[in-house]
Amino acid sequence: MRDHTMLPLSRRSFIMGLACSGFAGAGLLAHAPAWAQTFPQAFSSFSVDIRPLKAKGLGPFADLVGQAALDELYRSFADRIDRRGPRFMLVITDIYMTPFTDGGSWRDLGGGGSGSDGMDGEALALGPKGEILARHPQHAVLDVARRSTEPDEPGRAVALAQHYVRWLRRRL
Hints:
By secondary structure, the chain is α+β, with helices and mostly antiparallel strands. Helix content is 38%, strand content 22%. It has helices at 11-30, 32-35, 51-55, 59-76, 153-171, and strands spanning 45-49, 87-96, 116-126, 132-143. The longest helix is centred in the N-terminal third of the chain and has 20 residues, at 11-30. The protein is elongated and about 50 Å long.
């Protein structure tokens, strides 16, 4: 039996091989979106999972956000409904509503903060057995332009949920 021991590589050979593998990888990375997880273009149904919000104690407020997001999903994706497509599930994981509705912030007083609300979540395309076919995490921010004497948290929450879904539509 032959002994297949490797010959030691010179530094030049090693660097040249590393450079060539880098160039080969660059071609793959340039096309990453094409072979990355693509989101389907048509969906059989829509749902919103607000359990993460309920677990944080948001109760009826979470219900309001979930219903606003669901209504906006049906409006924004109305042209992409096909009963043969996968199910679309939006999982809302977090919502942040600023106390600075007039655009002020703690920075003016030496702290941190901003005059914007935010929402985190993930859009999922689910197969017939509930398997995740594609996922799209997203964070959306909406500037708040209300007087601090009239904060209207429910109205802001609805506007934020609608904004979040409209960004999903643009991204997917």
